[in-house]
Every structure is written in C-alpha cells, then in structure tokens.
Amino acid sequence: GVLLRAGYSKTIGRPNFSYYAISESISLPDDSEENTISITRGNPDLKPRTSNNFDVSFEWYMARGSMLSVAMFKKDIKNLIFAQNVKVDNYEYNGGRYTANITTPTNSQSAGLKGVELSARQDFHNILTGPLSNFVVSANATFIDGHQVVVQADKSLRSVDGLEGQPKFLANATVSYETSVFGASVAYSYV
Fold first, then answer.
1. E strands, the chain, where?
2. Closest by CA position to 79, among listed 45, 103, 53
3. Gap between the Cα atoms of 120 and 169, Å rounded
4. What are the tens digits of pLDDT across the range 71-121?
5. Per-residue model confidence as pLDDT tens digits over 60-69
6. CB 42 within 8 A of CB 60
7. Which end of the chain is more exposed for a tag (fewer CB within 10 A), N or C?
8. Residues 6+ apart with CB under 8 A from 88
9. How far is the C-alpha of 90 from the C-alpha of 100, rounded, in Å?
10. What one-character DSSP code corresponds to residue 31?
11. What CA–CA distance (Å, rounded) separates 103 from 89?
C-alpha cells in the first residue's frame, strides 16, 4: 500500500539553567608567558527556543516487511541558542591586563532547517528461500540544510550556514538475521 503523511507541530525548548544563570567563570592561563584568559558568562536575558515544524512523507509498502519512503521536513526556529564568542583586548582582571575570550549563550535572530530523508527496508522472507529468507536489510540517508542569522557583539547581523553541531548528511544501514529463536544485527552509522 501507499501512505502519504503530513504533520505540523510547534515546539518550545527552554535554556539550560547554567545558560541563563547570572554567573561568570574565569580561567587563567597555566603559563605565565601566556596572556589570554577565558571567560564564560550566563545570560539572564535568554529567551526559550520555539519552532514551527512541517513534515510530509510518501511511503510505499511493497510487501510485508518491505518499504521505500521519502520524507521532507522544515523547521522555522526563533531564538535559537548558540555560543557567542567575543575577543576583548586589554581586559583588566585582578590588576593585570589580558586578552579575554568571552563566551556567552545568546539567542539568534532567526534560524531554520530543511531536509530530505530517504529510507528503505527489505525483508527477504518473500524473496529468498531457506536460511537466506531470514535476512532483513534497512538503510536511510538524510540531507540537511541549515541557516541562522546571529546578532554579533556590535549588534550587526551575520548570516551563518548551518546550526551549531548540525551535520549536512547522516546515513544508517543495518543487516539483520531473524528467526523465531535467534536474532542478530550489524549496523553502521555515518555522521
């Protein structure tokens, strides 16, 4: 049979407590020759991340246990949280002057993801005979495109390709052997 699915959802993600706590952590250099300190600050003005999510998929079930599908997704994200890094020269701390690398969680102005997922599963029960009929092969591949507009320290806007930690391609493959008393699988994932 053939199935067409469509969905919409709205999600919210609250910041980690450590992101919006009023705090500051300073790491001094190990070597007296080095003149750089690292500062991590919380941001009490962080807003929760919200997103509008759109999904549509086309699924074809050729036989029992076998399937081909194509799915598309899109996420419009508001207030995505990312780590903003700012370098400040001549930063005064404890009577000394340093170059400071300051990291603060910040909301982006806008962000989005869109992508396509291709999936296949083949159960060999109806194709092969004997012990070979117990094999099952499945695989999927996802192509992802992301973007965000971030507000820089000087309040200017910068467009960035991809989201923090977001891959452009994912893939998984599994070969299984299944009987009524035994089952084993070998899987591979690519990120």
1. 2-13, 24-27, 36-41, 49-63, 66-78, 81-93, 96-107, 110-123, 135-151, 157-161, 169-178, 183-190
2. 45
3. 17
4. 999 999 999 999 999 999 999 988 888 999 999 999 999 999 999 999 999
5. 998 888 999 9
6. no
7. N
8. 99, 100, 102
9. 8
10. S
11. 14
Q: Which residues contact 27 (CB under 8 A, 6 or more apart)?
A: 37, 38, 39
Residue pair 72/116 in contact (Cβ under 8 Å)? The answer is yes
Rg (CA), the chain: 24
| Structure-block tokens of residue 16 | 């980690």
Where do we find the tokens 């699924």?
A: 59
Contact assessment for residue 96 and residue 32, using Cβ atoms and an 8 Å cutoff:
no
Report which residue type is found at 84: Q
Q: Which amino acid is at 88?
A: V
| 130: Cβ contacts below 8 Å, ≥ 6 apart | none
- Amino acid 113 reads L
> For residue 166, how many C-alpha atoms fall within 13 Å in the half-sphere facing its CB?
20
Six-digit token string for 142: 């996802």
The percentage of the chain sitting over the pLDDT mark of 70, rounded to a whole number, equals: 99
Residues in the chain: 191
